[in-house]
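sry for the spam today, last one i promise. struct tokens for design, 299 residues
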């Protein structure tokens, strides 16, 4: 059963990856086949329920507008194959069938919307809108595989707010929550669509930069740092940031080790006086790895 569900999920993901037009055309073909079946079978055999299959398919994968078009066409096709002599009855059959198909279309569209919202909430930190740890990990693992195939570097930044506990104690948790939301929103404005922000803890965040080498990451991080400083300067939030940034030359690595290494870089900034960014390559050289291990022992 688990194998069947996994295959079904992959098939749904495949259809989701296709364009709306592709799925709409597939639904049209499906509807035409049902119409043909309806036409060649005896009139006593009813096929109105079969039209629900392409209607549901198109609504789910192409949206409510396409679903309504299929509902209208399915009603027309069904009525052509089920003409009755009494006009009032014929009109009633068409109207009731169309209303039923439209109701199913609306129901499936609502279900899809609720499912999308639930999927988003299950992968998103409800306070800041950043990815939660689970979603962040899934994205990184997928991107590492892609980077390995295409021999591309990627980078990750580990960002921690300096003295956030003191801020919470002074201004309260409501102000602290507003601060976190403003910081994440500000960071996201500086990123590409392919970059990902994840919340790893209370005031600890990670930023993943796919297909980005160290020099490009430095440019982006300096821009983020500058914009965050402007945000803090324009408010009562006198907060600074300690950041550790690692760049991987490609390949698949243990995610926990990547996060631990970036976390170690961040703590080096903390011990050096905070409010700075430290960069390193991963995997580290034997010398830099020993230096970080020594730093971790002092933490």
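last one done:
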């Amino acid at each position: 059963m688990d194998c069947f569900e996994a295959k079904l999920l992959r098939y749904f993901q495949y259809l989701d990856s296709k364009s709306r037009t592709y799925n709409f055309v597939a639904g049209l073909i499906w509807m035409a086949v049902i119409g043909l079946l309806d036409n060649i079978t005896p009139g006593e055999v009813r096929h109105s329920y079969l039209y629900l299959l392409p209607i549901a398919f198109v609504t789910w994968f192409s949206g409510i507008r396409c679903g309504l078009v299929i509902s209208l066409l399915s009603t027309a096709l069904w009525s052509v194959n089920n003409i009755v002599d009494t006009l009032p009855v014929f009109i009633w059959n068409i109207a009731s069938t169309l209303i039923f198909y439209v109701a199913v279309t609306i129901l499936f569209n609502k279900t899809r919307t609720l499912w999308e919202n639930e999927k988003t909430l299950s992968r998103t930190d409800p306070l800041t809108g950043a990815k939660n740890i689970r979603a962040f990990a899934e994205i990184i693992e997928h991107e590492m595989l892609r980077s390995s195939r295409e021999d591309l570097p990627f980078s990750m930044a580990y960002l921690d707010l300096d003295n956030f506990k003191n801020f919470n104690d002074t201004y309260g948790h409501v102000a602290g929550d507003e601060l976190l939301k403003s910081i994440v929103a500000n960071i996201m404005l500086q990123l590409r669509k392919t970059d990902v922000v994840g919340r790893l803890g209370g005031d600890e965040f990670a930023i993943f930069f796919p297909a980005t080498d160290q020099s490009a990451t430095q440019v982006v991080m300096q821009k983020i740092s500058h914009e965050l400083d402007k945000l803090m300067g324009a408010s009562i939030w006198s907060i600074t940031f300690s950041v550790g940034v690692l760049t991987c030359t490609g390949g698949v690595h243990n995610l926990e080790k990547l996060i631990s290494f970036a976390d170690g870089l961040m703590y080096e900034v903390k011990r050096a006086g905070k409010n700075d960014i430290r960069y390193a390559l991963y995997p580290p050289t034997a010398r830099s790895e020993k230096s970080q291990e020594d730093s971790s022992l002092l933490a």
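The first strand starts at residue 154 and ends at 161. ok im logging off now
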